[in-house]
Amino acid sequence: MKFGVFYEVQLPTPHLAGDEGRMFREALEHVALADRLGIHHMWAVEHHFLEDHALSSAPEVWLGAAAARTTNIRIGHGIVCTPPGFSHPARVAERIATLDQVSGGRVDFGTGESSSRMELEGFGVDVETKRAAYLEALEQTCNMMVMTPYPGYDGEFFSMPCRNVVPKPEQKPHPPLWEAGKPDVAARHGMGCLGFNVVGGKQAKVMVDQYYRTLEEDCLPIGHAVNANISVLATLHCHPDADVARRNGEHLKFFGYTIGKYYLNGRVQPGRGRSWEEFLAVKDQFPEIGDSPTSAIGTPEQIREHLRALQAAGVDQVLLMHQAGRLDHDANCRSLELFAREVMPEFVDGEDEREAAKAERLAPAIAAALARKVHLPMPSEIPVVEPYGRFSHFPSADDYAIEGTSPETIAALGLRTPTG
Q1: Are residues 56 and 87 in the same domain?
Q2: Same domain for 410 and 286?
Q3: pLDDT (tens digit per residue) in 288-309
Q4: Which band of pLDDT confidence, cut at 50, 70 and 90, is reported for residue 374?
Q5: Are residues 288 and 397 in the same domain?
Q6: pLDDT (mean) for 391-409
Q7: How far is CA 206 from CA 190, 198, 313, 327, in A?
Q8: In this structure, are residues 171 and 223 in contact, taking their beta carbons and an 8 Å threshold?
Q9: 66 near 55, Cβ under 8 Å?
Q10: What does pTM read for this prediction?
Q11: What percent of the chain is modeled with pLDDT above 90?
Q12: DSSP 181
């Protein structure tokens, strides 16, 4: 089983001067630590306008900084908001491929449609058609990373002419694809499942079985390769003293609080939040997550017990939700160090053999799925695109006229106005 560290970059409101920069610096320090400790993946969300849930509204920016500070850890978008209202598919393809080149081929391309009213309506994305828009855009984004040139597309949610989208990613045909949270949707389209739900072993087994059953029976890849993996989320705080782990883990309740606020039953006034005060008033109503069979909060042995259940269920990767509320950064880092030293070795031992056996078992189903894929055809003739014939940095007669140059001089210079 593999492990990934999961970053919302949470900062309760109100935000004080310097807090936002500090949070990004701490996140980058934590990623570098995770890389040194041998953690396999890091994942950064893309959220917009959720001011106390996530500062990571432009993950492609700080993930570039994370790539520059690390060597081995895989750099994951968890996720890119993919419907065209958020970003044009060509811009997504450019960003993913550039980060893949910058990181030396370490990118994982997590995708999703978003589900919060704050985000969808903020970008004019229709909640009723977002799934169709997401799937259309994602398929074409993958085509753009693979095809030279991209032949163009005229669809329901976006259109563009024939262009060669560059750079192409280092990983071929493109970085591994993941989908947010829905095992059946992910498997049906040949993507890994980023299970952003905190579950125990029994629930994980249901998800894993559904994922691999769908993959083997009903997969039609949306990309040009199949990424057969399923992950689940676990809240993490590791400490030798169970009481200290539980006290520090109280901060992770804030993650659940903001989920409820933005997705379920909250009332939000943009820019007027005082979430920390609101959270403190209700936090004792939340279950004691340190005692939950779905959390990785406690001593190393307590955490191993939870992870053994996930491993037995067939989970491929556990996403470690480790930072929330006002949890002290140093305590967070010490937690990860203890986890890597005392817990992780048991679960990574034999991982290469497990993955090889899984790949052999799934190879026929994946080959059949890829054979069913219908590829975007290349046009019989690549169109020729001619420029407009003007360039803003070359002065025109109008520019000289503004400066008071005489008509005779303008004529002598051989300049023409755009209309004459």
Answers
A1: yes
A2: no
A3: 765 566 689 999 999 999 999 9
A4: very high
A5: no
A6: 70
A7: 19, 13, 8, 33
A8: no
A9: no
A10: 0.92
A11: 87
A12: S
- Residue 380 belongs to a domain: no
Distance, CA of 194 to CA of 180 (rounded, Å): 5
Domain span including residue 396? 388-420
pLDDT at residue 272 above 70?
A: yes
SS3 state of residue 128: coil
- Joined together, the tokens standing for residue 271 give 């820019």
Provide the pairing of β-strand 2-7 with 41-44. parallel
Per-residue burial over 260-291, b if 16 or more Cβ lie within 10 Å, else e, is ebbeeeeebeeeebebbebbeeeeeeeeebbe
Q: What is the CATH number of the domain that holds 124?
A: 3.20.20.30
What is each CA distance from 317 to 160, 193, 206, 346, 350, in whole angstroms?
37, 10, 16, 14, 14
Torsion sign (Cα): 376, 378, 379, 382: positive
Query: Which tokens sit at 307?
Result: 């992870």
Q: Quickly count: other Cβ atoms within 10 Å of residue 38's Cβ.
A: 13
**Which pLDDT score is estimated for 420?**
47
List pLDDT tens digits, range 155-180. 999 999 999 999 999 999 999 999 99
Residue 381 located in a structural domain:
no
Closest CA to 280 of 253, 247, 240: 253
Do 245 and 341 lie in one domain? The reply is: yes
The tens digit of pLDDT for each residue in 180-196 reads 989 999 999 999 999 99
Residues 310 and 410 in one domain: no
Q: How many domains does the chain have?
A: 2
Average pLDDT, the chain: 94
Strands (E), 97-252: 107-112, 153-154, 159-160, 177-180, 192-198, 230-238
361 shares a domain with 286? yes
Are 400 and 273 in a shared domain? no
- CA nearest neighbour of 342 among 378, 301, 309, 372: 301
For residue 339, the tally of other CB atoms under 10 A from its CB is 25
Whether 322 and 409 map to the same domain: the answer is: no
Give the 3-state secondary structure of residue 366: helix
User: What span, in angstroms and rounded, lies between the C-alpha atoms of 295 and 309?
Assistant: 11
pLDDT digits (tens, 9 = 90+) for 62-95: 999 999 999 999 999 999 999 999 999 999 999 9
Distant-in-sequence, close-in-space partners of 379: CB < 8 Å, separation ≥ 6: 151, 152, 162
